[in-house]
């Protein structure tokens, strides 16, 4: 299976505040799957991890064995790459889940990008926050359960 590119972004309006998680999956430069979901009230960092986890679940659901992740959360990227320790108790289970999902790929990278290079994922998170619901066409629901939506 071809290598997938996952762009993930989470955000909260206020910290904590109403939050959303968004992702976009690309193969050979074309979007094959995207989603955004409303998280309720939480922090920016939790939203970033939730976006990544849901995005990775969707990459798995699409059957890809290799993934390159791009996120604009320097903290999350450095934690996942082992540069920073995870000290926040609320982030520890999310970090473990993300590491477990990443380990299931034959190969993966986790890269930091500037915010403007992550606009498509940011758009999904913001649309979910605005509508207070799940948006896009995810391949699976949070938790890795198959979605009823069709891919575009």
Note the topology.
Blueprint: E1 4-12, E2 17-27, E3 30-42, H1 44-61, E4 66-71, H2 74-80, H3 92-103, E5 107-112, H4 119-131, E6 135-136, E7 140-141, E8 145-146
Parallel strand pairs: 1-4, 4-5
Antiparallel strand pairs: 1-2, 2-3, 3-6, 7-8
Please explain how this structure is put together.
The chain has four helices and eight strands; from the N terminus they run E-E-E-H-E-H-H-E-H-E-E-E. It is α/β, with parallel strands linked by helices. The longest helix has 18 residues, at 44-61. Helix content is 33%, strand content 34%. It has a single domain (4-144), classed as Nucleotidyltransferase, domain 5. The two termini are 19 Å apart. Helix 1 packs parallel to helix 3 (92-103).
Largest sheet: 6 strands, mixed
> How are the strands of the biggest sheet laid out side by side?
5-4-1-2-3-6
CATH classification class: Alpha Beta
Question: What is the count of DSSP helices, taking H or I runs of 4+ residues?
Answer: 4
What's the CATH H-level superfamily name?
Ribonuclease H-like superfamily/Ribonuclease H
User: What gap, in angstroms, lies between the N and C termini?
Assistant: 19 Å
Morphology: globular
- Give the overall average pLDDT: 94
Uncertain segments are: 148-152
Oligomer: single chain
Helix coverage percent: 25-40%
Q: Report the count of strand segments.
A: 8
* CATH topology assignment: Nucleotidyltransferase, domain 5
Number of domains: 1
CATH architecture title: 2-Layer Sandwich
Based on helices, strands and strand pairing, what is the structural class? alpha/beta
